[in-house]
Structures are given as structure tokens and as C-alpha cells.
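help with this.
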Amino acid sequence: MNTKKRLKIGVIFNFSKSWMGGVIYVINLVNALNFLDDEDKPEIILFYNPTLAEFTKEIQYPYLKLVQRNFGNLYKQYLFSMLKGKNLFAESLVNEFDLDGLYPLNDQPVPASKAFRKPGFVAAAWFPDLQHKFYPQFFTKSQLILREARLRLLLKNTDHLVLSSYDVASHFRKFYKLRDSMKVHVLHFASIIDEKASNGNIDQLREKYKLPASYYLVSNQFHNHKNHTVVLKALALLKAQNEKVHVAFTGKMESAINQAYISELKALISDNALDDRISLLGVIPRQDQLCLMKHAKAIVQPSLFEGWSTVIEDAISLQVPVIASDLDVNIEQLGEKGIFFKPHDEKKLAELLASFPGRQGQALYQKYEDRLKTFAMNFVSIFGKQR
């Protein structure tokens, strides 16, 4: 009889509802644990912000306990934690639920070694990327100050830092002096795909969204660093050459934060009369997005900066080719299977879009189940072997 005690890991689900990258990250993380052998599956206590309650329905895992938690005012919790020498975001969770680990504990106003005295306990932080160091112009002054302050406290007080790529790890070592005692873990995120959703009726969806039979797909939020401009410039070049190429864009275009960027994109579309070459689909259901991705000629990922692209991970899970900007992290993620261009080179991108043969139906990447199991095993290993 197997009497091995399951690891008990607390997962903090306390992101802003508007940051879908963080939301999807946690949903995928817990669901990926289903790919482990039963004896290796940890018990997960998910502490969720009430505003994210609707997303907890997307998590299906046999050893899951949902606990609604109000994490309180960020600034007050930091202040009182420092005054009392206790991490008020997490210490009560560890004690009440007898946790072996907690993740991602990004708010660490006091040293973890003082806050958590349980032998073998691992409090691991996760930080997606250091975009603010490379493109500070994409942040407000207050955002930069707050991000940097929280990050420096995290690096001062955490013993375990989880990063999504070796590229991001190199950025941390470039900009910060990391303590020798802090362990850095690189955990490559992998996307779980709803097979039923991705196998939807593509003919109906093409009709619904008025798409041609052949199209490329860009599936990013309309933020400056996502670099939609290079795609529109490439389409303008192709139109001048009478090359018929169509690109569909998903995501909410209207945003009070990015008005200058949105205006630039609209001007490119209007000045080059690209309306018949593009489809602005807006925010669409996830099942529609997956099916459109699966049947696209390729996914185009033109970003100026990424930590580890969820869109690329979706494409890999769907076995769809990707044409991406030649960022180090994109090359790390796609390897020799990727097709790359420099992020400001619309001529090269135009050439690729015009000549790309498509590779639908081919097994381009590692087997889906193997990737998810590796992701899950690497996550559990951060917290040690089973008790």
C-alpha cells in the first residue's frame, strides 16, 4: 500500500482581472498537474481573489481545494508586514493549511526565512519579465516606481525565484545582484488546449468572422510592445506588389491607456487602404480563438519584448507554425522550428508572408502530452520530492 503523503502546495490566484496572461498562467499550471501519474499529483489549495471566481470554473483537478481569500490593501499589508515582521499576505495561509509550499508569493515585504519557519517549506516567487527595464516608455512613472520597489523587496526577501525562460534569467542577472543563497528556477510554461474547442467547425467560424480560406493570425493584446505596426507595414508593401495576403487580429483594440498607439495603427490601416487585407475580430471566445489558430496558415508573433509567449505556447500545443520576431526568448521557445524576422523589418516579414507554404497537419513540435507532463514535473520539483 502506498502511504506516501502528497505535497500540499498553496497557489495564490490574486492577479488583476485585466491581466489575462497571469490568469491563464495559473489555470494552465494547475490543470497541467493532471498529466502527472496519480501518485505524483500534489494537493493544491487555490487561494483566489473573489474577482477571479469565474475563472476557477476552468480548473479541473482531482486534488484541488478552492479557498476564497481577500488579500487586503496592498500598501497597508506591506506596511503592517514590515512593522510586525510577518508576511501578512501569506503567513496565516501556511499555518492554517499546513502547506509544504506557496506559489507565486510575489509580495514579500519581510524575509521569507523569518516569516515561514516550517522545516522544508518553500515560498517561491514568480516574475514574468523585465519589460520595464527595456521599454520604460511603455509605463507611467508611478508604475515604474511601484514595480521596481516591489521587485527589489522580492529579490531581497525571497529564497526561490521562478522565471519562465533562460532569457529572463539573464536579464535578472544583468540588472540586479542576486543573492548567492537565492535559488533561481527556470520553468517553461506550456499551454493546455481544449481539444473539443480547437476541433470546432472552421467553415462556420470563417463565415462568422468573414475570413478568407487562407489567413494568418495575430493574437495579442493591443499594447505598444506587441508591435502590430510591423505587420501592417508588411501588408502595405504586399498590397503595393499586388500580393493577396490576409491577416486576422484578435484582442480589444480600443484602450484609453494606448490611445497614441491605437491612433498610429488606425492611420496605417486608413492611409494604406488595408481594410480588405485585415480582419479586426476584437475579443472572441477562447474556443473560437483556438480553432482559428489551428487552421491559420501560421501564427504571427511580432513582439518587441516577451517573457515567454502564451500565444507561441498555444501554437506549439496546436502544432501550428509560427513566424516570430527574432527575440532571444522567441528563439529559445521555438528553436529550429520557428521562422524569424527582425522586429522592425517589414520587408522580410512581407517576404515571409507572401512565400510561406504552410505546414498544417504536420507534427512540428514535441508531443503535446510529453510537454505538459514535463512542465508539471518541473513545477512540483521546485517544492521537493513527495513526502
User: Anything to note?
Assistant: The radius of gyration is 22 Å. The mean pLDDT is 91.
